[in-house]
Design a protein that fits this description.
With 350 residues, this protein is an alpha+beta fold. The protein folds into two domains: 145 residues, no CATH class; 158 residues, Phosphoenolpyruvate Carboxykinase, domain 3 (Alpha-Beta Complex), CATH 3.90.228. 26% of the residues lie in helices and 32% in strands. The strands form three sheets. It has a nine-stranded mixed sheet with strand order 5-1-2-6-11-10-9-8-7, with helices on one face. Strands 12, 13, 14, 15, 16, 17, 18, 19 and 20 form a nine-stranded mixed sheet that branches. A hairpin with a 2-residue loop joins β1 and β2. α4 packs across α7 and α5 packs across α6. It is globular, with a radius of gyration of 20 Å.
């Protein structure tokens, strides 16, 4: 078993044989150590249309261990968050050797019922209810199920059953999806939100850029990094927001989309900015319901679980009151970064 502390919350991952945690060669271990220390990484956000780099700290096949097998799983993006202390895990996931016999049997008997499907954008999955428990079937490609996540009634413990016939890369992608879902369930009551955002740090505080996929969040972060001295990238897709003692913080996480930015750090939030493509660069302050709605639409949510959604929306309300929220109509140009920079930093300093 290995434990990882993400956003201040500990999750445990255990593997049944034949699955194994992949060993890391020295070059990969050095990158992991730098990320674990919160150091800035020599990477830039991956924009729509860019060639996608390696999504973990293993950059090419030459950095794979010589004795690897098809059952070795690359957890390098999680290793910067690994903890060796005696902290009790808030959540746990077991990667199982095979699917249990009861799963197919109970589906055939109608004891597992389809709740809904998500097929608008990856990851695609089907959600089932089994008494008080929840199951997710992950669709790898055109109806080919790659595996099933089985969650306990309280959403804090899970088992993942990979389907045979898929390689370790596909299996690891689905495991990451399973861990993100588990994290969302387990932390919802704890003033914590897993966000869809790109984050840059400047002068010790963070700006989160929100927007629908394809809006240009990564492009805007890249403009800050290129044209505003003293910036660094915190996370490029799935940072963690958390309210602690009346302060809103953003954490790096092991999930960062197409950009391998897995830094273990916590930064106070300066501003949360929703981006929208436009023929000009203009920024305006959001407040009240507009600020609340802007954050809510970017938070990973479990809309079919009412109690958890109530907890999450309470956290969103706190976040909208603690952070300066903005809406930026923008072009993909340096002026957009300058307009955003001057508005958000001037407000923070006044």
């Amino acid at each position: 078993m290995r434990k990882y502390r993400v956003g201040g919350h500990v999750m445990a991952v255990s593997l049944e044989a034949p699955w194994r945690f992949m060993d890391m060669v020295p070059a990969v271990a050095a990158r992991i150590a730098a990320a674990a220390a919160g150091e800035a990484l020599p990477i830039v956000p991956t924009r729509a249309g860019d060639e996608v780099p390696a999504r973990t700290f293993i950059q090419d096949r030459s950095e794979l261990p010589a004795d690897r097998s098809r059952y070795d799983l690359d957890f390098s993006q999680y290793e910067p968050f690994r903890c060796e202390d005696d902290a009790e895990p808030l959540m746990s996931l077991q990667i199982c050797a095979q699917e249990p016999a009861w799963l197919a049997r109970e589906k055939a008997e109608g004891r597992i019922t389809l709740l809904m499907s998500v097929d608008t954008r990856p990851p695609y999955y089907y959600i089932y209810r089994r008494a008080e428990e929840t199951l997710y079937e992950f669709d790898a490609d055109e109806g080919h199920i790659a595996g099933t996540l089985h969650l306990s009634a309280d959403g804090r413990h899970g088992a993942y059953y990979p389907k045979p016939g898929f390689g370790p890369h596909t299996t690891m992608f689905q495991i990451s999806t399973a861990l993100m879902m588990l994290y969302t369930y387990a932390t919802a009551p704890l003033d914590t939100l897993l966000m869809h955002a790109s984050v840059v740090r400047y002068a010790g505080k963070a700006n989160l850029f929100l927007g629908v996929s394809g809006t240009g969040k990564s492009t805007h972060s890249r403009l800050w990094l290129s044209h505003i001295d003293g910036c660094d990238l915190v996370n490029d897709d799935n940072p963690v927001l958390r309210v602690e003692d009346g302060v809103l913080y953003v954490y790096g996480s092991p999930w960062s989309g197409k950009t391998p930015c897995y830094r273990n750090l916590r930064v106070p939030v300066r501003a949360i900015i929703r981006l929208e493509q436009a023929p000009r660069n203009e920024i305006r302050r959001l407040s009240g319901l507009q600020a609340y709605a802007s954050i809510l639409s970017a938070a990973s949510s479990i809309r079919w679980e009412r109690t958890l959604m109530d907890r999450m929306t309470a956290t969103v309300e706190k976040a909208s009151n603690l952070a300066a929220c903005w809406h930026l109509d923008c072009l993909p140009d340096p002026e957009a970064a300058a307009v955003c920079f001057h508005a958000t930093t001037a407000r923070a300093q006044s």
